[in-house]
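Schema walk-through. Below, the input block comes first and the output block second. Nothing else is stored per chain. Lengths vary across the set, and this one has 287 residues.
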Amino acid sequence: MHRSNVFAQRYVLTMHRLKGKVAIITGGASGFGEATARLFVRHGAKVIIADVQDKKGRALCNDIASGTDDCGDSSISYANCNVTDETSVKNVVDLAIFNSASLTLIVDVKKFSRDLDKTILGTTNENFKKVFDVNVYGAFLGAKHAARVMIPRKSGVILFTASVASVVCGETSHAYTMSKHAIVGFMKNLCVEMGQYGIRVNAISPCAVSTPILTHSLGINTATLDRVITESAVLKGVTSDPMDVAHATLYLASEEAKLVHGLNLMVDGGYNVTNPAFSFAFKRLLS
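--- output ---
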């Protein structure tokens, strides 16, 4: 084959890295999930957004399907899914497997504690349980039903969204920090089992990004949060964005990462290698 044709073929493959694959993105109606859905569609995947935000989820599907994101031969659809309800999770997985033999599950659900006080005595039992219900039990159910269809096929990818809180402690609530440590532990344990069937399992740990859920949780606007993130960043001169996480997810879901298994990929600009004081910067800017 002529060299120019080889390069052209590689370019096409690069632009369609997920052609023929189906991806379920739980929590995909906004934030990291939304960015990932847009990017996956551009790379040829059939995407199912599984969320409880019906209005946002359907609006996103309509926006992408309208051609805004150059859909090509891919497609996108929305399914209401409560990740803490097993029947709901099972139904979404069953819906996906009719479309392709190659399934990717992206667990991007997250719940922050509503307790403003991050101390052990200020943590309410109710909120603690809710955080674990969504972040940990929801991830377990998603992986369980994805594995149900992946194991017989000996094919598939499972990706969890963890957090820099799985490595750096003291800046988020006990419930959230524990839940993200649990996700990484679950991912590593699962990778040993699933590896026997050729199924890859990894996690992605972002740092703070101005997503709707974080700004709402902190009770501040995007501009203020961006200033805090910029001041506390280790890697200066760049601005964190949901698409950074989406690109990391694309890599781990693609064949380019065929030997990447059991990894907690930090997408945090080196934040985890220091002992930063995000909360101190936050207080200084608001004082």
